[in-house]
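Lay summary. Proteins are chains of building blocks that fold into shapes, and those shapes determine what they do. In this project we predict the shape from the chain. Here is one chain we studied, written as its sequence of building blocks.
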Amino acid sequence: MMRTDNILKLKWKNTMTIKHLFLIFVFFLLTTTGFAAEPIKYRLLLQVSEDSVDKLNLALNNAYNAQMAFGPENIEIEIVVFGGGVNTLKYYAPIPIADKVKEAKYAGVRIVACDIAMRSHKLRPSDMLPEVRYVESGVAELVEKQTEGWSYVRP
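And here is the predicted shape, written in a compact code that computers can read:
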């Protein structure tokens, strides 16, 4: 009888240890995932569709101001340039604009030009500032990003 009692006690201890470990593991998962959630990430979409250096400059300023307001690590920004706006991103853009585009890119702002608009204005990627990326359609890019929940601003 003594041997049976010892075996039962041992089984009970092992069962309790496994249950305790399981509960500790579940508690660990619940507490770490709650605190490890990423901070709110804002997403801003800016449009430039006019052949106006002033409009591009305003969009670049808006991007900078948004990064200062939310913190660069908390906001994702894309400037979509289409229509006549693609002319503002040529490699021979005025120096202040070219410098601001470069600064914006290195600050994490994505600047994209519409391929359709570029073709209609007879522009190639070699005509553009090197920081520019490309999308097939500027309008489609705006629609897709807004569908994904991006905030849209037309400066």
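What the prediction tells us: The chain has a mean pLDDT of 86.
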